[in-house]
From TrEMBL:
Residues 24-278 form the EAL domain. Coiled coil: none annotated. It comes from Marinomonas gallaica. It comes from the Bacteria. This is Cyclic di-GMP phosphodiesterase Gmr.
C-alpha cells in the first residue's frame, strides 16, 4: 500500500509540474498578446512636495487590463515577464506612454517635477538600451528634463563597466536616477558614491513602522542626512497617514508618495486631479 501511495504522489507531483509548465506557457502567450493588443497601461501615483504640498511629478506603474481576469497588478506578471525576457517591451511601452503624457503636460509642470519609470535590472544587459530610450524620447519630442528612472540596489551590486556607461549615457541625455526601495537591499553603501544617483526612495517598510518604532525613525533620519551630504533628494514611499507625513516633513524629507495623497490612478484621472490636459489617444 505504501508503494502505491508513493507512486500516486509521484504521479501527482509530475502532473503538478506539467500544469505549472502549461500555466507559464499560457502566461507567456497571454503577455505577448497583451503587448500586441495594448492591454498594458500606465497608472500614475503623484509625488508631493512636503513643504509646499505641490505636485512634483509621479511614478508610472504598469497595470494589465486582462480580457478575463480584469485589472492585474504588476506583482502577478513582472517576475514572470522578467524570466521570459518580456520585461524589456513592457518597460519601454511604459516609457512611451509617459513621454506621450509629459509632452502635453510639460508646460504645466512645476520645475523639478519628475515622472519616473521603473527599469528592471534586466534592461542593463541589453546593448540597445540607450538607443531604444533615445528613440522613444525623440519620437515624442518631449525632452528629458521631466523624466526619471527608478532602479533597485540589486542593479548596482553587479558592478561592471557596461552598467556605468549606460547610466552615464542616460544621465547625459538628461534623465535622473532614483534608487527604489532604498534600505531593503544590500548593506554595502560604496556604490552610492560610485554611481551618479540623484534620488533615494525610502522603502515603504520604514515609513510603515516609523510612528511606533524608534529605530525606523533613526533609520529615516540617517538616510536623509546621508542623502543631504551626497546632494541627493529623498522621496518617502508608502505614506498612508497624516502623522507619517508630518514626521517626514520634520525630518526634512523633500517628497512623499503614498495612499494618503492618492493611490496610483489612470492617466485620465491623474490629469483631471491636477488640472492637466488629457493627452490625445495615440
Ligand atoms: P515600486 O516601484 O516600489 O512601486 C511602489 C508600489 O507601492 C506600487 O505597487 C504602489 O502602488 C505601492 N504603493 C504606493 N503607495 C502605497 C501606500 O501608501 N501603501 C501601500 N501599501 N502601497 C503603496 P504596484 O503598482 O503594485 O507595483 C509593485 C512593483 O512592481 C513596483 O514597486 C515595481 O517594482 C514593479 N513595477 C511596477 N510597474 C513597473 C514597470 O513598469 N516596470 C517594472 N520593471 N517594474 C514595475
Ligand atoms: Mg518604483
Ligand atoms: Mg519602491
Ligand atoms: Mg517595490
Amino acid at each position: 500500500a505504501a508503494k502505491s501511495s508513493q507512486r500516486g504522489s509521484i504521479r501527482f507531483y509530475s502532473h503538478d509540474l506539467t500544469e505549472k509548465a502549461l500555466e507559464r506557457l499560457e502566461l507567456r502567450n497571454s503577455i505577448q498578446s497583451g503587448i500586441r493588443n495594448k492591454q498594458f497601461c500606465v497608472f500614475f501615483q503623484p509625488k508631493i512636495n512636503l513643504k509646499t504640498n505641490a505636485l512634483e511629478g509621479a511614478e508610472a506603474l504598469v497595470r494589465w487590463h486582462h480580457p478575463t481576469r480584469g485589472l492585474v497588478f504588476p506583482d502577478a506578471f513582472i517576475p514572470v515577464a522578467e524570466e521570459l525576457g518580456l520585461i524589456n517591451e513592457i518597460d519601454m511601452l511604459v516609457l512611451d506612454e509617459v513621454c506621450r503624457c509629459v509632452k502635453v503636460w510639460q508646460s504645466h509642470l512645476a520645475p523639478g517635477s519628475r515622472f519616473a519609470v521603473n527599469l528592471s535590472a534586466m534592461q542593463f544587459t541589453r546593448e540597445d538600451l540607450v538607443s531604444t530610450i533615445e528613440g522613444i524620447v525623440q519620437k515624442h519630442q518631449c525632452g528629458t528634463k521631466f523624466l526619471e528612472f527608478e532602479i533597485t540596489e540589486g542593479v548596482l551590486m553587479v558592478h561592471c563597466e557596461r552598467l556605468t556607461n549606460k547610466i552615464k549615457a542616460l544621465k547625459e541625455l538628461g534623465f535622473t536616477f532614483a534608487l527604489d526601495d532604498f534600505g531593503t537591499g544590500y548593506s554595502s553603501l560604496s556604490y552610492l558614491s560610485r554611481y551618479p544617483i540623484d534620488v533615494l526612495k525610502i522603502d515603504r517598510s520604514f515609513v510603515m513602522d516609523m510612528l511606533e518604532s524608534q529605530s525606523s525613525q533613526v533609520l529615516v533620519k540617517t538616510i536623509v542626512a546621508m542623502a543631504q551630504n551626497l546632494a541627493m533628494k529623498v522621496v518617502a514611499e508608502g505614506v498612508e497617514e497624516p502623522a507619517q507625513a508630518a514626521l517626514l516633513k520634520q525630518y526634512d524629507v523633500d517628497i512623499a508618495q503614498g495612499y494618503l495623497f492618492s493611490r496610483p490612478i489612470s492617466i485620465e484621472a491623474f490629469a483631471s486631479m491636477y488640472c492637466l490636459p488629457v493627452p490625445p489617444s495615440n
